[in-house]
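Q: Hi! Curious about what Ig-like domain-containing protein looks like structurally. Here's the sequence.
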Amino acid sequence: MNSAFKLLILIFSLIALSRTASISSLLNLHGRFSRNLRSNTIYGRSSQEPNPHYLFMKIKPPKHLSVDLHDNRVLECEAGGSPPPTIHWLKDGRTIATNVNNDENAISEVYTPILGIGSTKSKLFIDCFGPQDEAEYTCVAETPYQREISKSKVVIKHVNPTQLNSLCVSTKKSIDTPARITMWTGNMLENMGNDVILFCRTLGKPNPKITWLANDELVDNNAKYQVQENGDLLVRHIDWNDMGEYTCVAENSVDRDSAETFLYPVKNEDD
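A: Let's find out. The predicted structure is below.
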């Protein structure tokens, strides 16, 4: 996939992210970029200018959902904004642990986004759905400045009370569970020269091993990259060569999962 095609994908992604935003948010987004048509370069605002903050939901879980007894379900949520949000889930108002570190809202202290525009995706896995899983589930997208929520009421369809899937029930009680990626960065834009954090939060027993690929090349911890304890990837001092697709891979003895992120370095107007 060439750079021009990737740029088009990113621009269409941003348009899609902005579709449901307020007028003021769209104006903020428009005001933060200029584009040199000859060099095909997007310019971000000067690092000296104050950053407008905004947050909105792109994908919400269904408001009402009826499931079969012992069915497996996945609730999905995606939010975009500046700075990029974290996402966590509530069950009847109580926080659900959706990663091995229970740090759904944590962001590395070494990371201070300057431009920081991006989208974050999350999945909530509910296996072998039973009566104890009937609840109101809430997707919560947060930044240090704003918070957006979307609620989903999930219930069991009417079934024969004698219906039982013993394999499903025993699997749910199993000590070992599949490696799953529960929150990750979808797209990220940041000024060249700055650091970025790409989210990758996981769940599973045994704890999943996390590896990252940059444009299909395995990432090692070095002066450029550092995989954080929670699975996130720190990319230092990004430049044009860092543009592309990053893949987080989570793997344990039960299963393997992966998620893709696209990073687009933006030329600073100060340069």
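A: A fun detail: The CA atoms of residues 151 and 181 lie 21 Å apart.
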